[in-house]
């Protein structure tokens, strides 16, 4: 898929008609959106037959350098893609500050080992409130979900709308 094709994707309708005009942000737009907040990004690399992982990593490297955003992201992709990426552009992977892990496979011991090696641990894709609470109680550093509003309500007791109305977001 080309960047122009990605920019045409409707990223919101599956959640609600009111989000039907939402588009997939570029890496630059995502960084701009969270600058000034205590937030990190999850950069997920999708390597296919039609793209060059070295080129993708080089573009990401250039953007991260231009935005002075090193150390505020985790990298995610399949094991095969990660192995290829580490060989192609190790600087990008080594400058990440965390890993992503399937939430069903994370254990206290696995989490401890990552933390012992100074890596943050984000789990994906956690949509059930019971599992979100279990991940919070376990002590993971980030949770990827299709329902961030549920996470906010469980963690801080407020919905995104409540926070916006109070001027905190």
Please, could you describe this protein's structure?
- α7 crosses α8.
- The protein has helices spanning 3-7, 27-34, 53-66, 79-88, 90-94, 108-116, 129-138, 148-156, 160-165; strands spanning 41-44, 73-76, 98-102, 120-124, 142-143.
- The chain has 169 residues and is an alpha/beta fold.
- The chain has two domains: 1-96, Alpha-Beta Barrel (TIM Barrel); 99-169, no CATH class.
- α7 links the parallel β4 and β5.
- The chain has nine helices and five strands; from the N terminus they run ααβαβααβαβαβαα.
- 15% of the residues are buried.
- The strands form two sheets. It has a three-stranded parallel sheet. A two-stranded parallel sheet has the order 1-2.
Helices, strands, pairings?
Layout: H1 3-7, H2 27-34, E1 41-44, H3 53-66, E2 73-76, H4 79-88, H5 90-94, E3 98-102, H6 108-116, E4 120-124, H7 129-138, E5 142-143, H8 148-156, H9 160-165
Salient structural properties:
three-stranded parallel β-sheet, 12% strand, 9 helices, 169 residues, two-stranded parallel ribbon, TIM Barrel, alpha/beta, 2 domains, 45% helix
């Amino acid at each position: 898929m080309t960047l122009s094709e990605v920019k045409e994707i409707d990223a919101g309708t599956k959640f609600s008609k009111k989000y039907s005009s939402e588009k997939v942000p570029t890496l630059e737009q995502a960084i701009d959106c969270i600058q000034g907040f205590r937030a990190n990004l999850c950069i997920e690399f999708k390597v296919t037959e039609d793209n060059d992982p070295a080129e993708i990593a080089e573009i990401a490297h250039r953007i991260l350098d231009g935005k002075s955003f090193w150390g505020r992201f985790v990298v995610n992709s399949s094991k095969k893609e990660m192995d290829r990426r580490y060989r192609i552009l190790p600087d990008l992977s080594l400058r990440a500050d965390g890993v992503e892990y399937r939430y069903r496979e994370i254990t206290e011991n696995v989490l401890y080992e990552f933390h012992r090696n100074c890596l943050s641990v984000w789990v994906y894709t956690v949509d059930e409130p019971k599992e979100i609470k279990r991940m919070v109680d376990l002590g993971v550093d980030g949770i990827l979900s299709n329902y961030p509003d549920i996470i906010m309500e469980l963690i801080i007791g407020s919905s995104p709308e409540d926070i916006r109305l109070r001027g905190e977001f």
